[in-house]
Amino acid sequence: MYKPLVFLVFLFTSFVLNAGVVKGVVRDSLGQPVPYAVVGVKSSTYGVNTNLNGAYFLELKPGAYTLVFNQLGYEKQEHAVQVTDDKPVLLDVTLRTLPAMLHTVEVKAKGNRDRGKEIMKQVVARRDDYNDRVQNYKCGTYQKSSLEKVPVVGAFDKEEKSGADTASTGKKKRKRKKEKEEEQGKEAEDLQKVLTNQKLNLIETISETFYKSPGKFHENILACHDFAEAKRYYGTGGVSFNVEYGEHEIIPTQYYSENPYLLVSDAQSIDFNFYRNQLDLPALCPRPVLSPAASTAFLNYRFELLDSFLVDDKWIFKLNVLPLFKEDALFSGLIFVQEGSFAIVSVNLCINPGVLLYCKEFCVIQDYSEVSPGIFLPVRREFSYTIREGKYNIIGNTRVDHSVYEVNTILPPETFGDEVKHYEVDAFDKDSVYWVERRTIQLEEKEIEYIHKVDSIAAYYASEEYLRKEDSAFNHINIWSILLNGVGHRNRVTGNTFYVEPLIAQVIPFGVGGYRHRLGGYYNRDLHNGMLLETDGHIDYGFLNKDVRGKVGVGLTYYPLRFVRTFVRFGDYYDMVNNYASLESVFARSNWIRCREFSIAQRMEIINGLFGEVTFELSDQFPLTGMQLEVWSSQLFGSLNAPAEFNRYVKTEVRFELKYRFKQKYIIKKNRKIIIGTKFPEVRLLWRKGINGLFGSEVNFDYLEAGSMDEMKIGRFGTSSWNVLAGWFINKHNLRLLEHKYFRGSDSFLFSDPMRSFQLLGPRLSTADAYFRLNYIHHFEGVFGSKVPLANKIKITSAFGGGLLMIPSLNFYHQEFFVGLERVVRIKKQLFRFGVYAVTADNTFSKADITYKFGVSFYNSFTRRWSY
Fold it and tell me: Are 288 and 300 in contact (CB under 8 A)?
């Protein structure tokens, strides 16, 4: 106990001796918290906002100050404080409600509005000049991000607050009023408990930040301490499975472990440059947010001059920013402007809540300093937000300090390459002394205690004893493991993991030839140096035909920074003819054959963004003729159920595929490469070669396919996505039906991915000739409805798009068009976009008709992109 106590005292005194703190809680007259109230130093641009629970934490140098507490609808209050560096000043404040604000809107003098508008006109006139002055810079950055999960006050109260209490009798109403007052007093007590019992996650980084106009960043992380990850396992192992439905993808899918509620976490996401027309903030809202200093600001904002005061012999104007459209992607709050230069020296702005994806509120504070003559850059940023999750509120806060600016200097040319963030090898090994000496802000006591607690048990979490204990929970077997979850065994000390599928996955009622029982699973070996051995496979038995089928795959990733993997697969199994058929026909017997296969695939990233895969496949392919088929399948699938008729043959095929992402961005962290993505189109090239005579092969063909796809923001007018693909058989001396190019068929009611399929194409289509495919969709993301009073409340947005497919040799031309209404819904941490679409199509064989379909797309919080 002695060493931890000394360490804690050392930490605490290291912080409190260098600065002072004023902290407390702002409440209303009923004892309820006042969230996002402004707590500022009088005659200064410096201040903070209260969080959802009304709490604030204000760092100040020792001295005398007058603090101003202000929130719309409450009387402004001023309190004098004397700040010392030996202990925090506790100051709780009760704000009184303005009676006029209960039913009316405060009206400012017209002169203040006109003066505020004139000041902002000067800011807008100089906007481009201030942007052009900064060609590049280098600075030191300290960043602290925290997430606190706190119960919603009253959410766990089991008493019914409806029913008999809502009866219309006057006696019961008076009783309910009295009970409500008592509940409010109880909630105030509960709030105080919440404030002292918050669960906290904390991440700190110290870095060098490099910037190059107009928006390139590079971060060199010198030190990182992710206290939230103290219990996480950093191995590269995990569940490995082979997805056999859908278009083949050679770029590895990565699921980065960052919490999606960490909405501002890097240099790009904290770059709130208000001198730009709009701020693209994909983690916060789908549409770019219009800056109050934009060229079109006066069509969307109203500005009022609230105050003016002297700072260092220069007048500062305090302006109130009022959005004209409450549901549009706009800001509200305060902007401080320096007289003469008309430079922005501070902001305290919040985004309209109606446009936010995750948050109930999101606010940003930025203080600027004149780091070079005529150049003002942020030195302090603070982002605070609240996310509702069931009976809890997630309170997020990110604090960023910049120092030692070097502006318009000579930076090495390689600084702004494709790597946007690099973690130094020892970034995660810095000791406590390093952090104490280099933190630029004062931590709250609860944060210091939390850091000490996590640091003290970090070694235990990495110990063999703890890992075995964690593994025992994973290895525990019960009835739910057998039925639903599967049975697994993991030993993270040795890196071994195996898993057997649960009973629900073993039952295959729609198997080829009727009911089949399947036993599948995987075995992985994490070699702890980035290398990974992975296997998967299954064996299944059909009771109707008394046949045993199965396949096995073995892969080794041995150069993780280049994603180099060799994968071998072999087996005798039933395979799909079209691996991306419509859901209505994917189980039809016409889509299945028997296949004996051996294949070996070699994948790697050749250069950054250029992925290649070479696959050799030897297969013996059988038709399903002669098998007993279940009666119900013919009744269900009708004409689609007749098995494909062909003679058994041997095929030897080589596939060579390239996919290139121009200027692909990535992060290097712990000897692993994490792909961010690219803003440029992605191109793809595929060559398939059927080799006649090799190992008895009977096919002889060459197929070439090329395509490109991209997603692009069109300002504040939404997001467009397109996908173009063309292919042709340049040699088809011996081309079988199974080797044709297949297209995804259409489903009756489901709106399938419009980037890779068509909505009214029919159940099945293939070709042995050249074709051209084009798909397009545009999501307006509220560009129209945000200004329509009713539409902006229900948050319905619109989309439109279409597709084109041409097969000239068959004289087949298909074109379709669709429009839809969409709405984003959040369930826990996952966002879904539900839509209803009207689709019409016209092709060579049928005429135009209108069909209605329902679809859902999913949001990837890491790539900041929707599935469509």
Answer: no
The CA distance from 106 to 98, in Å, is 10
Task: Spell out where 440-495 has E strands.
Answer: 487-491
Q: Which one-letter amino acid corresponds to residue 730?
A: I
In angstroms, the Cα distances linking 2 to 6, 10, 237, 370 are 6, 12, 39, 47
Asked if residues 21 and 58 have their Cβ atoms less than 8 Å apart, the reply is: yes
Pairing assessment for the beta strands 419-423 and 665-669 based on DSSP bridges: parallel
Sequence-distant (≥ 6) Cβ neighbours of residue 67 within 8 angstroms = 22, 39, 40, 41, 42, 58, 78, 79, 80, 81, 91
Q: What is the DSSP letter of 227?
A: G
- Residue 400's nearest CA partner among 366, 376, 427, 370 is 366
Comparing C-alpha atoms, which of 349, 293, 312, 403 is closest to residue 44?
312
> Could you tell me which residues are beta bridge partners of residue 225?
204
C-alpha–C-alpha distance, residues 292 and 351, integer Å = 11
Q: Answer yes or no: pTM beyond 0.90.
A: no
Beta bridge partners, 305, equal: 319
63-70/55-60 β-pairing: unpaired
Check: CB of residue 824 under 8 Å from CB of residue 830: no
List per-block mean pLDDT (blocks of 10 residues) for the chain, which spans 868 residues.
Answer: 38 48 92 91 92 89 93 90 88 85 44 84 94 95 90 58 44 55 49 47 92 94 77 35 66 68 89 94 90 95 93 91 91 95 95 90 95 94 91 90 95 90 91 86 78 65 62 73 82 81 88 90 83 91 93 92 93 92 83 95 95 97 86 75 89 97 90 86 97 96 97 90 97 94 90 93 88 96 70 82 94 94 87 95 84 92 84
Helix axes 2-16, 445-461, angle to 10 degrees: 140
Dihedral sign computed on CA atoms, order 529, 531, 535, 536? positive
Q: How far apart are CA 326 and CA 300, in angstroms?
A: 10
How far are the Cα atoms of 332, 346, 495, 561, 620 from residue 349, in angstroms, in the given order? 5, 10, 49, 41, 66
Q: In the numeric block, which tokens belong to residue 492?
A: 């993270």
645: helix, coil or strand? coil
User: Helix (H, G, I), strand (E, B), or coil: what is residue 268?
Assistant: coil
Torsion of CA 437, 442, 445, 451, to 10 degrees: -40
Most distant CA atoms of the chain, gap in Å: 96
Dihedral sign computed on CA atoms, order 554, 559, 563, 564:
negative
Beta bridge partner(s), residue 836? 821, 854
Of the candidates 408, 456, 410, the residue with the CA atom closest to the CA atom of residue 432: 456
Contacts of 465 (CB under 8 A, 6+ apart): none
**How does strand 20-28 pair with strand 93-95?**
parallel
d(CA 278, CA 445): 38
Residues 6+ positions from 862 with CB-CB distance below 8 Å? 254, 255, 256, 258, 260
- Given a contact cutoff of 8 angstroms between Cβ atoms, the answer to whether 11 and 436 are in contact is yes
What single letter denotes the amino acid at residue 163? G
> Residue 695, SS3?
helix
**Separation CA 681–CA 683 (nearest Å):** 6
Judged by DSSP in three states, 280 sits in coil
Residue 131 φ then ψ, to 5°: -65, -45
Q: Where are the beta strands (DSSP E) in 716-770?
A: 719-734, 741-743, 765-767
194 token code pair: 């919440």
Burial of 394 (0-12, 13-18, 19+ CB in 10 A): buried
Q: For the purposes of burial, counting CB atoms within 10 Å of the CB of 738, is it exposed (0-12), middle (13-18) or buried (19 or more)?
A: buried
Condensed to tens digits (0 to 9), the pLDDT of residues 655-708 reads 999 999 999 999 988 778 888 888 899 999 999 999 999 999 999 999 999 999
Name the residue with tokens 């902006």. 792
